[in-house]
Design a protein that fits this description.
alpha+beta; 8-stranded antiparallel sheet; 6-stranded antiparallel sheet; 14 strands
Length: about 550
């Protein structure tokens, strides 16, 4: 046939050959054209390839099978010539992942449980208990979950809010029945809920979030801070803060305030009234501390202890005694027992390290380390525990008043540079004090669906955001116990620097009479049941409660 060219018998192969030549002639930086599209010139308009749908056309030998990028080639021995099998294979691989997505997204209980498991083995009681231990750490967020709705916590009326504030200021004791049939219609419950959300704060800067302060530079950066460059304004703020701090301490001493927190940009201090946490005197715990802070406290005459360090030394000595007895029983060398016992005196090491210089007669020609270097070497262990939970410092009795004056006059208490420069520490209290501002925790209810036994059930949740102190946590659980009919669970998000406050610190104090303690602290503004919980000796150690669950009016928890 005149004008007929046999090269057009296989149009798809011809187009692929043209694209292949085009790729070879283009520079390496140029991106190849998409598969199945005709090559475009610099100014050529977009044009559809008329042969892109001819899938059954014969292909040239050695031409690769066109497929999507990232698609896995068919395994050896499989019918690779069948395009249907190639299209079906990735679909079969993706199906299990897509099936698992709803489960992973909606199984809220399992996800939060795995997310907040501690590194150590969690402490879970063998049987449910009527009360959970006191948790002295500050929580930044609570997430309560239940099969019963939280509609009673939504849209409080103006009168209910006002009544809740009045009950808080008057320290009104609210006792609810064990189970409330219609929680949404219970005005007493809604007022008590508003009462449990109240806390007191100083200073109050509406456009800044003043808790937590440790690691808050990134959150505060870029916000207006007119005091950062104004020394006169900084002095006014610190003077006002000192008055509020002193007011809180006097309330604590008079047992009108159970406890309060001082949150700086480097450490947190918890002041507790006499009778709380198993102590018969006022206590103050500081965490984390540094060698410089501890040295400054010693210079001011503040007597303090490092309970966790002393506990470690005691445990080490006991282990050394056990090892020594074992070695003597096994007729081993007693000299080796010193390795497992107390650490050798650094001064002896220094003397022995320089004794060989004296033997050679060159002790005057070799430069020895100065006294500062020797001192740093002696305090190596003390420096290593800085900024760690083990650096917890305990101040007791009248030394807490000396600590008060030290903190007021301490220049390093306030940042000298950075986003927090010139901003006084945050004071958090469960009761009103001079210069304090009433604040409320933010609460909202959320509804979600969770997969339970191959079916989806509706889960109701209540989220509480803010600095949740120990009394607020206990008050909220008492309300939920009645409103949710004794069945709910909670995920607790802890401000980690405060978790170490749960360490039992006072082994030497005599057993306290609970009736006398509760009677003395009745005017502190807390519910009697909450007060009874906070008088118990801490049992959580350096950890805090991460997960709390109530079933049939019994508590279980994980720390």
């Amino acid at each position: 046939v005149p004008g007929y060219s046999p090269g057009f018998q296989k149009p798809p192969a011809m187009l692929r050959l043209k694209r292949k030549r085009l790729r070879r002639s283009e520079p390496p930086a140029a991106a190849p054209p998409p598969c199945g599209a005709a090559p475009r010139g610099p100014s050529a308009p977009a044009r559809r390839n008329p042969f892109s749908s001819l899938d059954n056309a014969p292909r040239a030998a050695g031409t690769p099978q066109p497929r999507e990028r990232g698609q896995r080639p068919p395994p050896r021995g499989s019918p690779s010539a069948a395009p249907f099998w190639q299209l079906l294979e990735p679909v079969c691989e993706d199906k299990p992942a897509r099936r698992a997505e709803p489960s992973e997204r909606t199984d809220l209980l399992a996800f939060t449980d795995d997310l907040h498991l501690p590194v150590a083995v969690p402490e879970v009681p063998s049987s449910p208990r009527h009360e959970f231990p006191a948790d002295w750490s500050i929580k930044t967020r609570l997430l309560f979950m239940s099969s019963q709705p939280f509609t009673w916590a939504e849209h409080l009326k103006a009168q209910e809010e006002a009544q809740g504030f009045a009950q808080h200021c008057r320290a009104t004791e609210t006792n609810l029945p064990q189970s409330i049939q219609e929680p949404k219609l219970s005005t007493e419950l809604r007022c008590a809920f508003q009462q449990s959300l109240v806390y007191w704060l100083h200073p109050s800067v509406p456009w800044l979030q003043l808790f937590p302060r440790i690691g808050a530079d990134r959150r505060i950066a870029g916000k207006a801070s007119p005091w950062s460059q104004d020394e006169a304004l900084q002095q006014v703020l610190m003077s006002d803060w000192s008055v509020s701090f002193t007011s809180l301490y006097h309330l604590l001493k008079a047992k009108l305030c159970p406890y309060f927190y001082v949150c700086t940009y480097q450490f947190t201090v918890l002041f507790r009234a006499a009778g709380l946490a198993g102590s018969d005197v006022i206590t103050a715990v500081i965490s984390p501390t540094t060698r410089g802070l501890r040295e400054a406290m010693r210079n001011e005459g503040i007597e303090f202890s490092l309970p966790l360090v002393e506990e470690g030394r005691t445990r080490k000595q006991k282990n050394a005694e056990v090892n020594l007895e074992t070695e003597v029983a096994n007729s081993l060398e007693v000299d080796n027992s010193g390795e497992d016992g107390e650490e050798p005196d650094p001064s002896d090491d220094e003397h022995e390290s320089f004794s060989w210089l004296e033997e050679m007669g060159v002790q005057d020609k070799v430069k020895k380390p100065d006294t500062i270097s020797i001192k740093l070497r002696k305090e190596k262990h003390e420096v290593q525990m800085d900024h760690r939970p083990e650096s917890l410092a305990l101040v007791k009795g009248t030394n807490t008043f000396t600590l008060l004056n030290f903190l007021i006059n301490c220049k390093s208490l306030v940042a000298a540079a950075g986003p927090q420069a010139g901003l006084p520490p945050t004071l958090l209290s469960p009761v009103a004090f001079r210069g304090g501002t009433m604040q409320t925790l933010k609460a909202r209810s959320i509804n979600a669906k969770a997969r339970v036994h191959l079916a989806y059930e509706e889960i109701f949740s209540l989220e509480i955001v803010g600095p949740v102190m120990p009394h607020s946590l206990h008050s909220l659980t008492m309300l939920l116990k009645s409103a949710q009919r004794g069945a709910f669970s909670a995920v607790l998000y802890t401000h980690e620097p405060t978790a170490v406050f749960n360490t039992y610190l006072d082994d030497t104090s005599p057993a306290l009479n609970k009736e006398t303690v509760c009677k003395d602290l009745l005017a502190c503004g807390l519910h009697p049941k909450t007060l009874d919980q906070l008088t118990q000796c801490p049992t959580l150690g350096k950890s805090s409660i991460r997960f709390l669950e109530m079933k049939d009016y019994g508590y279980t928890w994980k720390s």
